[in-house]
Amino acid sequence: MADETKIIPTTGRNNCGGRCLIYAHVQNGKIVKLTTDTPEAAGNTPPLTACCRGLHYHETFLDESKRLRYPMKRVGARGEGRFKRISWDEAVETILRHWIRIRDAYGPGSRYVNYATGVSGLVSGRQMAKRLLALDGGFLDYYNSYSTACVDTVTPYLYGTKLTGSSMDTLTDSRLILLWGHNPAETIFDSTLYYLRQAKEAGVPIICLDPRQSDTAKALADEWIGIRPGTDAALMDAMAYVIIREGLFDREFIESCCQGFTKETMPQGEDPSDCYFSYVLGEKDGQAKTPRWAERLTGVPAGKIEDLARRYALARPAALIPGYGGQRHAAGEQFVRGAIMLACLTGNVGVSGGWAAGCGYLNRHKKIHIPSPVNPYDRSISVFMWTDAILRGRQMTARADGVRGTIGDPDAPCLDSNIKMILNLAGNCLVNQHSDINRTARILRDESLCEFIVVSDLFMTSSAKFADILLPGLSFLESENITQPWECGDFLGYNNRCVEPLFEGRQEYDWLKEVAAGLGLYQEFTAGHETVEDWLQDTYEKLRLEERELPPFEQFKREGVYRYQNNPRTVAFADQRRDPERFPFPTPSGRIEIYSPRLAAMNDREIPPIPRYMPGFEGVEDPRREKYPLQLVGWHTKRRCHSIHETNEALCAVDPQALWIHPADAGRRGIADGDLVRVYNGRGATILPAKVTERIVEGVTAMSQGAWYRTEEKPGRTAERNAAERNTAERTDLGGNINVLTTSRPTPLAKGNPQHSNLVEVERIVRD
Questions:
Q1: Is the pLDDT of residue 715 over 80?
Q2: What is the CATH number of domain 623-764?
Q3: Residue 72 CB contacts under 8 Å (≥ 6 apart), including other chains
């Protein structure tokens, strides 16, 4: 007879914007189905309802035919994907041996834990690995993220803080909402879609600006404005031109709260002619930033720019909410600064229904975290620059490469070693999600550069193939953890183990304890916490001392979620708006620094002191367009969370991988809808079907990010011949992976991810 069905609550812990509440229906030790949250259960809070990804988690993660089963060591060339089964004892002994060898030969800065988001819960392998490395002398750390490097770096230059977000329930007070490169219908973005629907039902008009008519634009927008990638700051400048010339700006707010808009508000000692108004009106360079000027760059008609500027300036309050796509460009910092500039220019800061732009982060409740020991090695690099740190770490500097720490001469080398050991735990950024895959793979194949790589994962991803030691991990359905909102939700979720671990999979903490024992650091590493659950309970109880409405741990675990009830409406900078003398902004001047003396002091032509359009590499003004005339951007598809779910065939049909291309561009190349096409540039090529659609701007193409990089094994050849061909730089990807085409050149200030700035050409593949 079948066992009684148990319903076990848990929450998604991947780097998805949803953090959905899931109920696993378990029978005979197997999950038979998943259900999710409902509006009735959520009460007066946004429901944590799973999308198609969340409702297919068990099919993705528990497919035994695709899971890694046991520890393995590499037996072929690195990247070839050939491994041999070993025991956990041998795996730990091998890791320990190389760990000590590399530490003693190269120093603590030779060790690096790669960026990874496969586990975005309280306890993650990368966090625990950093804890152990810190106790063992230190490691080279990173700052920023692949998602938000530019916005995280530049927002504090203007506002002095990253906490620029208002609570989403204030959007019903708006009279106009601009979603600029923001697509919460697919990325989820906490409960943003829930509140946008409320605003729309209240009659608030919504306009989406994006090179692609996203699902959000299609479902919610009253109007979609297509814009060429990387030209957002030009459109913002032209909107400012109209607002300034027609006197629609908020002079009182500018004079009381802002620095650098006008000559009168410039900081003392700076040239008044460098103010933003002078730039927009063309007083210094002779080029007024008119809508006609912007039309040539953006592709948006001048009349539409004028109309948009007036509508935004006159709505009051209006919310310009930028997504993250616009700042993942060659000059992504300027997208962030331009959005803040418009919010300040129109006085939409510090008012309910407005939006301050920038990071948009909001902390109504304390974050839960495990305290980490101080890293004795205080150097860190931008998260996007790790391949450079393998190649030339000892030559990297603070000024040119963004190295941080206790730096003396910013032009002198800062690191004492190149990266020699990488721990890549629950992540696919080692290859698949990092830019310029062919370059990255060449670097990783060279064992004289990075000498030892450990990977822990669920599947044989393209990153896993580059491991020296490959370890089987656990999904959230097989382990315990605590999750918290992606950015601004008001809840905590508990990951209950729903099924027993598959095969020999282990949570990273368990084998890191064994490495710690070999280093003589077991007591310091565990700090009395023998299990992951010990860490969860201890950390949760410490949070309860500050968040007193939280229930006891056992109740929280049993129910799987706690939704905070004390959630007052919050408006970013309301105090500063009301009384700027008493509540100054946390900047050096106490004002919003539209003109930044700190950026001016860098004396870098790519980092101007004011928000302004900067022509980025591989954009509309790049001369390389003669050879590669089409711009290429990516987006986050509803079928994957980054590269997760790619093994789930049921989800492939939700949004089949394809190259979006405008009918005019397709017609010039003889491409029909569904044709197989080759997309290429000087870095690589990929093959996928074409989707011919007017939902993409002419001159622009797009493919969703996260498809698994794969190449073809050719029949009739020896294994050695196939292996040799796999290891050439000229291989063509067959999976539609955008990162064979993206560049590893970083943005100027943040040294961040520019993965939407790409020039390509497309050709139809003629079948035999």
A1: no
A2: 2.40.40.20
A3: 83, 84, 85, 86, 467, 469, 470
